[in-house]
Amino acid sequence: MKIEKTFIKDLLIVEPTIFGDERGYFFESYSKTKFEDLDIHIDFVQDNQSFSKRGTLRGLHYQNPPFAQTKLVRVLEGEIIDVAVDLRKDSATYGKVFSVLLSSENKKQLLVPQGFAHGFSVISETASVMYKCDQFYNKASEGGIRFDDSSLNIDWGMDLKDAIVSEKDQKLPFLDNCNSLF
After folding, report:
1. Got the DSSP string for 88-102?
2. 1, exposed or middle or buried, with CB in 10 Å at 0-12, 13-18, 19+?
3. Catalytic residues, which ones?
4. Taking CA 121 as the corner, what is the angle to CA 180 and CA 176, rounded to the nearest 5 degrees?
5. Can you tell me which residues form the catalytic site (predicted)?
């Protein structure tokens, strides 16, 4: 397992070691021991999975403390542009955006710590996305930021006029007005 640091502290790309032969491949998508060997101590308690078609844009979502979530995101099928926004007000990278292509082919994962908004866009015909969480979902603590906030200037890999966005996500506030408690 290889960990790649990003320009935002604590936001990490995880690349598993792939063992392949003529039959196919095998890899550990998560190992608590290996994470702890890399000084990453997280107790995941919930797995979530979504299926979406091309053009779907989900996010940007977060949960406020004490129900804030760390997420380990990976793609089981297809390709997405995965996006994280630093909401930690005391961070040197507050309001900064990081994005990465995650796919079933590259098998990369993004470790999104507590204190970030998260979302993704589907750029393949369909995509199945799975993510582990270290905290259970709590509706009362959920929050979000508009996907098209011009101050964030996110490249979602698609024309936003064609994006398929839930009504709920279309009503989220811009970063300047979000109710983040980080």
Report:
1. -TTSTTTT-EEEEEE
2. middle
3. 61, 131
4. 25
5. 61 (proton acceptor), 131 (proton donor)
Q: Is 137 helix (H, G, I), strand (E, B) or coil?
A: coil
pLDDT in the model for residue 78: 98
Structure token digits, residue 60:
């940007």
Strands 97-103 and 2-5: unpaired
Instruction: Read off the amino acid at residue 26.
Output: F
Q: Which residues contact 72 (CB under 8 A, 6 or more apart)?
A: 14, 30, 42, 44, 109, 110, 111, 112, 131, 132
Dist. CA 27–CA 108, nearest whole Å? 11
Total length of the chain: 182
Mean pLDDT along residues 69-94: 98
pLDDT category at 38 given cuts 50, 70, 90 is: confident
CA dist 64 and 170 (Å) reads 20
Name the CATH architecture for the domain at 2-177: Sandwich (2.60)
58, amino acid identity:
R
pLDDT tens, residue by residue, 151-161: 999 999 999 99
